[in-house]
Amino acid sequence: MAVVVVVVVVVALIALITAARGARVIQQYERGVVFRLGRVQGQTRPPGMTMVVPIVDRVRKVNVQIVTMPVPAQEGITRDNVTVRVDAVVYFRVRDPVRAIVEVQDYTYAMSQVAQTSLRSIIGKSDLDDLLTNREPLNQGLALMLDSPAVGWGIEIDRVELKDVALPESMKRSMSRQAEAERERRSRIITADGELQASEKLSAAAQVMSQTPTALQLRLLQTIVEVSAEKNSTLILPFPVELLRYLDNAAAELGSRAAERTAPAAAPAGTPELPAAPEPAAAASPASSPGSSSPSSAGRPDLLRTMAAKLAEAMSTEDEQVTSPNSDDPRGRPPETPGEPPAGA
Predict the structure, then answer these.
(1) How far, in Å, CA of 97 to CA of 40, rounded?
(2) Considering only CA atoms, which of 53, 54, 55, 45 is closest in space to residue 25?
(3) Mean pLDDT score of the chain, rounded to an integer?
(4) 91 vs 31, 102, 238, 244, 255, CA distance in Å?
(5) Do 118 and 172 meet the contact criterion of CB atoms below 8 Å apart?
(6) 20 to 30 A from 4, CA-CA: which of 18, 264, 273, 308?
(7) In the chain, which ranges are E strands?
(8) Comparing 16-30, 61-75, 87-101, which segment has the lowest mean pLDDT?
(9) Closest to 102 in 3D by CA, of 22, 42, 28
(10) Which residues contact residue 238 at a Cβ distance below 8 angstroms, ignoring those fewer than 6 apart?
């Protein structure tokens, strides 16, 4: 009887040890692939407690979480012949644990190598502007290139993103100058547009003021008030332009009358001829008659007539002194008597 009890106890211990060696615990984020005598079993073991045959079965646990794999920076030449260094990051997960274990030796290393070659190929097919500003199509193209071999390995590509684009220092300076020139161009366009709008507004204001001359006077007074509001010693004296035109026409008229008075007299020999004053526009006009008078000559004051008469008399007196026959000296001075000292001695 005692022998039977001992045998039962031994068998129970052996069964307990065997069950302990055959028990496996699989985490929630893992799946178990069972190899029985070297052959893979089609059904993967779910998370939790699972039993395998000791010595006969061998379990490989596969992580099915999303793996974040950085891609080392790859140097290449873009399609527009610019040397750049680009790095990326790949997010993937194992969809079929059996194929990920059986089809490829190390699926993580395989995905890293495929990502590097695909990234270098994307660099050669893209322009620099696309790498800097239009990365979304490049990300999609890179994910498509990685997805082609990954499907056969039981791996699903979640997403792929380009991280950084390193440019040479010379290219950075060139791009900085280009951006500065672009900003300068925009500022000049804005300034020119402002000048155009201001000129249009000023033209409209000038048309309104031309219809009402009083508005121009009010604007002049307002400008004087604005200048005088500042504490300075500036004195502003407005001078109408019409008065300058009137004085110009009056001077031309006086010159023409003086030339008419001195022209009939025969000029003596040696007398330099004075240039004739230009005739006024009112006198040269064929439409004007001797009895008609222009508005400027009708309103001319007597003071100007008196000044013209005095100017003509002074010119005639100077001519008589220069051409006097009693003078031996060409400058009109009397000859000096011998023995007498000069007047200035």
Answers:
(1) 11
(2) 45
(3) 77
(4) 19, 22, 80, 86, 99
(5) no
(6) 18
(7) 23-26, 30-36, 39-40, 48-51, 57-63, 67-77, 83-94, 155-166
(8) 16-30
(9) 42
(10) 220, 224
Return the higher-pLDDT residue of 302 and 164: 164
Burial of 91 (0-12, 13-18, 19+ CB in 10 A): middle
- Size of the chain, expressed as the number of residues it contains: 345
User: Which contiguous run of DSSP H or E holds residue 70?
Assistant: strand 67-77
Instruction: Domain 67-172: give its CATH superfamily.
Output: Band 7 domain (3.30.479.30)
Q: Using alpha carbons, list the distances in angstroms from residue 248 to 122, 239, 244, 256, 286.
A: 81, 14, 6, 13, 21
Instruction: Fill in the DSSP letter of residue 272.
Output: P
Kindly report which listed range (59-68, 82-91, 203-212) carries the lowest average pLDDT score. 203-212
By the 8 A CB rule, do 160 and 143 touch? yes
In this prediction the pTM is: 0.51
Three-class SS of residue 253? helix
* Structure tokens that stand for 345 in this block: 């001695």
Residue 52, both tokens: 């395998």
Q: Which 8-state DSSP code applies to residue 264? A: S
pLDDT digits (tens, 9 = 90+) for 93-152: 999 999 999 889 889 999 999 999 999 999 989 888 888 888 899 999 999 999 889 988
Residue 57 pairs with which residues in a beta bridge? Answer: 36
Q: Scanning the structure block, which residue is given the tokens 């302990």?
A: 20
The answer to whether the CB of 26 falls within 8 A of the CB of 32 is yes
Domain ranges of the chain: 17-63, 67-172, 187-225, 239-262+295-319
